[in-house]
């Protein structure tokens, strides 16, 4: 015991804080989460597959993945643009804009949801003009896409921004002395450097979108097979007291989320390694 | 290609980095820009490359005005202090970068690029590392990749910013020798920035000594070491002792030591400063004959044995000024002194300045061409 | 410098496109909340937010935050101390486990507590015996909220504490300070802004959580209704003006959060700049 302590240095409190961390983590997170898997394991394989392979479930998984993916894509493109503009250019009100990027983190999702719905409904500020063109946003997959773009917006900005801030301008100078144009420099020198951060931000936005509920329920219209997302379907099953069904779907979702989390952590680790080797 | 810097002034918000700098760098020379931190040497290098724009003055390459030309069109090879290698590209792609970003019309074919890169890898002795990434190389190897990358675009000349600053002593020695060799082989004009006077002396044909945004002196290493133009150059190059005194009646007095001068205006009375290299300090146990006017007594405070040489910390008994003397180990053994001994010191080869202007003194060469140890 | 930026017309095009995007997705919804809230006049607005059910929702929301935020702050500090000041095997696994709640959909977060404590749940017989209700009651809401906001404080504190190193703490302990004193007098002043930052984010999420709370609350008006749930109920009953009026309370909370967050960022940034300048004086080479 003494030996292992001296290995860690002689600061006190490791046992107490570590113990508390483990106990709290287990009670609040690990045990409740394992109950989900425990419950899923009480189902027979056929029962489980049967629940998952249901058309309505499959449709909701499809809607969730498609809308989350496209929302994350839009955020990847505009996230890089916003981060670039915020780091590299000077303009009035930059500080305020920079602060407001985090709005989706701070604004309760339900509020975001009803606000977006009112804007994009057929008589809404934007919805009325789009309706003239025959485009319906609210109560269609496009509406879900809009809501998921809203809640995922800060992720790419906030992962790319610090990388761009720490970026060594000498790289761009080096490219310039070698005769590269700005466009070439951006594509071949800056963007590849940002790529790990962009992918991390994309993955975070995608994972968040997959699980999102509050902002989507209002704008999606919740039509089975068309605009029903997975979290909503879980909710519906719960309201029908179909705990087994809800559990099965949740298990699949959770596994997908964990895989995403592993990918994100792996990327983060890779970025850190990259930076450490600088 | 020769470089001409004419009346360049560069200032930032509250700070003037370069004041009216003029400099001529002849074709094919290896030139060092030497100076302390903040002397403006890196700024000058970046101005020549086109990475900064001067407020006043012009920059000419082979007589052609390049002041307003974009960095991309200047065709200079620039090696950054921390190399600025592209981290996500392997060594091959790093070196090929300058060629591969050319517009389609002027871009060499893939084969030509590959051939060029491999010949450069050979030149910098990194064959076989083409597919490594910068993070997998040592500092010295990265430095050579940066050089190869700069050379790939066939620049008119090479600019190096503190090329060996980030390396440890041994690698630095090796790279210096290699750079000299490379310069001989390519015959390219090379201008490099350094704050290390030993590096400048060892490598350069010409040394440009800079301080506070001005060029203090330009000359061969020999010239600037033995004929420093002013006190700054004197004290910046190597260890130096300082003695304070006055000019009076056309005579310089540094404590009890007196020097005759050819100063015309006998009425001038002003503070004078004498500079003296530690290895010029001559120590004897008895008062030296004949030259007594320039010898003073001093006490040995401390003795440092530094391998082949011995350094003594001394204190003058007349002025209480502390100074250093260096001698060979053999001479030290002959003297047979110890800490606390009182010795006689003859002030040979003292360079005396009044108002930063050198003063000629009689009966002693102010700055002899060969250093006496 | 010319070679480090784009021509003005490209610069301004990019700025305008970025601002349009942010305007469309961020500013417009925010403006919509306030406009819709006053659509039927100030009287309806005032009536909606002073209504008894709204007030009880405010009370519950504050109560929930008042329990779950301190819980997670305590945890965050303990975890950050153990992780940042000591080295031990499995640290990365622990970090990933702490992140878990971020990867769990809020609906699933609610679901797991229903499976544990619901009428058919694992712990149901025990709860029935003690006559204690968790699901469709306040304890369930607190549990779900605490789960969802679990990583916030730890996540902010760990990197800050790690960056601080442990030299100062070791110095304090070697000078005879107790562990607790060392923490209060050495560690805490160093990480106070990071801690506050985490608390603010944690609090915003705790007060605004919707999905997880929605699953466990049972939507009992005046009893288990938090503000976001109250917004939903009003909205679904087509009382749009009232729904948006209540939503302005949450939007105001979001704005305050953003302002505090920006202030802290500004402060730490300035501190970092000062530190850097001091460092620059010592090692600075090139000017400009």
UniProtKB/TrEMBL annotation, chain A:
Residue stretches spanning the membrane: 21-41, 61-87, 99-121, 133-157, 189-210, 243-264
Membrane topology qualifier: Multi-pass membrane protein
Keywords carried by this UniProt record: Membrane, Sulfate transport, Transmembrane, Transmembrane helix, Transport
GO CC list: plasma membrane
Span of the signal peptide: none
Chief place where the protein resides: membrane
Compartment(s) where it occurs, according to its Swiss-Prot or TrEMBL record: Membrane
Gene3D superfamilies: MetI-like
Highest taxon of the lineage: Bacteria
Single Gene Ontology MF annotation: ABC-type sulfate transporter activity
Record's function text: Part of the ABC transporter complex (TC 3.A.1.6.1) involved in sulfate/thiosulfate import.
Assembly and interaction partners: The complex is composed of two ATP-binding proteins (CysA), two transmembrane proteins (CysT and CysW) and a solute-binding protein (CysP).
Protein known as: Sulfate transport system permease protein CysT
TrEMBL record, chain B:
Gene3D superfamilies named among the record's database cross-references: P-loop containing nucleotide triphosphate hydrolases (3.40.50.300)
Keyword ATP-binding part of the UniProt annotation: yes
GO MF annotation terms: ABC-type sulfate transporter activity; ATP binding; ATP hydrolysis activity
One Pfam family it belongs to: TOBE_3
Domain of life: Bacteria
GO cellular component: ATP-binding cassette (ABC) transporter complex
Keywords from the UniProt entry: ATP-binding, Cell membrane, Membrane, Nucleotide-binding, Sulfate transport, Translocase, Transport
Ranges where the ABC transporter domain occurs: 3-237
Name the record gives this protein: Sulfate ABC transporter
Automatic annotation (TrEMBL), chain C:
GO MF annotation: an example: ABC-type sulfate transporter activity
Any one annotated GO CC term: plasma membrane
Subcellular compartments: Cell inner membrane
UniProt key word Membrane: yes
Topology in membrane: Multi-pass membrane protein
Entry coiled-coil feature ranges: none
ABC transmembrane type-1 domain location: 58-261
Main subcellular location of this protein, as a coarse class: membrane
Parts of the chain that traverse the membrane: 12-34, 60-81, 93-114, 134-154, 240-260
Alphabetically ordered keywords of this record: Cell inner membrane, Cell membrane, Membrane, Sulfate transport, Transmembrane, Transmembrane helix, Transport
SUPFAM superfamilies named in the record: MetI-like (SSF161098)
Pfam family, one: BPD_transp_1
Stored InterPro entries: CysW_permease, MetI-like, MetI-like_sf, Sulph_transpt2
Function: Part of the ABC transporter complex CysAWTP (TC 3.A.1.6.1) involved in sulfate/thiosulfate import. Probably responsible for the translocation of the substrate across the membrane.
Assembly description: The complex is composed of two ATP-binding proteins (CysA), two transmembrane proteins (CysT and CysW) and a solute-binding protein (CysP).
Name used for this protein in its record: Sulfate transport system permease protein CysW
Organism: Brevibacillus formosus
Lineage, uppermost ranks: Bacteria, Bacillati, Bacillota, Bacilli, Bacillales
């Amino acid at each position: 015991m003494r030996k292992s302590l001296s290995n860690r240095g002689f600061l006190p409190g490791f046992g107490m804080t570590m113990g508390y961390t483990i106990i709290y983590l287990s009670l609040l997170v690990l045990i409740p989460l394992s109950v989900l898997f425990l419950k899923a394991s009480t189902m027979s394989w056929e029962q489980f597959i049967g629940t998952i392979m249901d058309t309505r479930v499959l449709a909701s998984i499809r809607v969730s993945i498609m809308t989350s993916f496209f929302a994350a894509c839009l955020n990847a493109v505009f996230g890089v643009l916003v981060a670039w503009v915020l780091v590299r250019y000077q303009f009035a009100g930059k500080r305020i804009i920079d602060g407001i990027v985090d709005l989706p983190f701070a604004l309760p999702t339900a509020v975001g949801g009803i606000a977006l719905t009112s804007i994009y409904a057929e008589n809404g500020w934007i919805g009325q003009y789009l309706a003239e063109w025959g485009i319906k946003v609210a109560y269609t997959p496009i509406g879900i896409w809009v809501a998921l773009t809203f809640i995922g917006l800060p992720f790419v900005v906030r992962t790319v921004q610090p990388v761009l801030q720490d970026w060594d301008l000498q790289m761009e100078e080096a490219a310039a002395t070698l005769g590269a144009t700005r466009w070439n420099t951006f594509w071949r020198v800056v963007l590849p450097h940002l790529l790990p951060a962009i992918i991390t931000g994309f993955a975070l936005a995608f994972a968040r979108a997959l699980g999102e509920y509050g902002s989507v329920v209002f704008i999606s219209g919740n039509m089975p097979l068309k605009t029903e997302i997975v979290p909503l379907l879980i909710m519906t099953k719960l309201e029908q007291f179909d705990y087994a069904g809800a559990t099965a779907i949740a298990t699949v979702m959770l596994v997908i989320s964990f895989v995403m989390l592993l990918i994100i952590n792996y990327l983060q680790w890779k970025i850190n390694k990259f930076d450490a080797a600088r | 290609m020769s470089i001409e810097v004419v009346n360049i002034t560069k200032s930032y918000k509250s700070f003037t980095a370069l004041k009216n700098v003029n400099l001529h760098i002849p074709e094919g020379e290896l030139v060092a820009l030497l100076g302390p931190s903040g002397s403006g040497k890196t700024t000058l290098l970046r101005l020549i490359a086109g990475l900064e724009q001067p407020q006043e003055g012009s920059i000419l390459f082979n007589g052609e005005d390049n002041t307003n030309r974009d960095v991309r069109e200047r065709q200079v090879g620039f090696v950054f202090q921390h190399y600025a290698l592209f981290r996500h590209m392997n060594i091959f792609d790093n070196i090929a970068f300058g060629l591969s970003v050319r517009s389609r019309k002027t871009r060499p074919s893939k084969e030509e690029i590959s051939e060029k890169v491999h010949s450069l890898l050979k030149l910098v002795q990194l064959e076989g590392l083409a597919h490594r990434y910068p993070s997998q190389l040592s500092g010295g190897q990265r430095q050579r990749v940066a050089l190869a990358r700069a050379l790939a675009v066939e620049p008119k000349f090479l600019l190096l910013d503190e090329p060996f600053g980030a390396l440890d002593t041994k690698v630095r020695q090796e790279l210096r020798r290699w750079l000299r060799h490379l310069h001989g082989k390519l015959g390219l004009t090379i201008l490099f920035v350094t704050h290390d006077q030993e590096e400048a002396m060892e490598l350069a044909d010409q040394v440009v000594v800079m301080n506070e945004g001005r060029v203090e002196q330009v000359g061969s290493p020999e010239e600037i070491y033995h004929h420093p133009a002013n006190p700054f150059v004197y004290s910046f190059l190597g260890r130096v002792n300082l003695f304070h005194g006055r000019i009076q009646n056309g005579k310089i007095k540094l404590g009890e030591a007196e020097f005759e001068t050819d100063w015309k205006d006998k009425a001038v009375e002003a503070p004078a400063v004498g500079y003296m290299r530690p290895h010029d300090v001559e120590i004897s146990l008895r008062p030296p004959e004949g030259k007594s006017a320039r010898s003073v007594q001093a006490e040995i405070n401390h003795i440092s044995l530094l391998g082949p040489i011995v350094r003594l910390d001394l204190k003058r008994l007349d002025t209480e000024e502390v100074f250093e003397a260096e001698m060979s180990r053999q001479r030290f053994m002959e003297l047979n002194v110890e800490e606390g001994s009182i010795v006689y010191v003859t002030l040979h080869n003292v360079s005396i300045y009044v108002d930063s202007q050198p003063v000629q003194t009689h009966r002693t060469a102010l700055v002899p061409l060969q250093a006496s140890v | 410098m010319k070679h480090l930026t784009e021509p003005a017309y490209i610069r301004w095009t990019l700025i305008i496109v970025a601002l349009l995007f942010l305007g469309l997705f961020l500013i417009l919804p925010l403006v919509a909340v306030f406009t819709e809230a006053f659509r039927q006049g100030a009287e309806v607005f005032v009536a909606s937010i002073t209504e008894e059910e709204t007030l009880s929702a405010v009370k519950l929301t504050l109560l929930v935050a008042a329990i779950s935020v301190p819980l997670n702050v305590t945890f965050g500090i303990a975890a950050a101390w153990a992780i940042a000041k000591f080295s031990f095997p499995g640290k990365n696994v622990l970090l990933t486990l702490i992140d878990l709640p971020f990867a769990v959909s809020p609906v699933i977060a609610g679901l797991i507590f229903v499976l544990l404590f619901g009428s058919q749940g694992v712990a149901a017989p025990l709860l029935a015996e003690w006559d204690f209700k968790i699901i469709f009651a306040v304890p369930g809401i607190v549990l779900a909220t605490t789960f969802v906001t679990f990583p916030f404080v730890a996540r902010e504190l760990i990197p800050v504490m790690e960056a601080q190193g442990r030299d100062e703490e070791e110095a304090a302990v070697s000078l005879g300070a107790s562990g607790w004193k060392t923490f209060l007098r050495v560690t805490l002043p160093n990480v106070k802004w990071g801690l506050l930052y985490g608390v603010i984010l944690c609090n915003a999420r705790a007060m605004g959580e919707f999905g997880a709370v929605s699953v466990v609350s049972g939507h009992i008006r005046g009893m288990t209704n938090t503000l976001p749930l109250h917004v939903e109920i009003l909205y679904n009953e087509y009382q749009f003006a009232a729904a948006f009026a209540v939503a302005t309370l949450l939007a105001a909370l979001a704005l305050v959060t953003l302002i505090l967050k920006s202030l802290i960022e500004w402060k730490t940034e300035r501190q970092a700049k000062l530190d850097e300048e001091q460092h620059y004086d010592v090692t600075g080479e090139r000017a400009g």
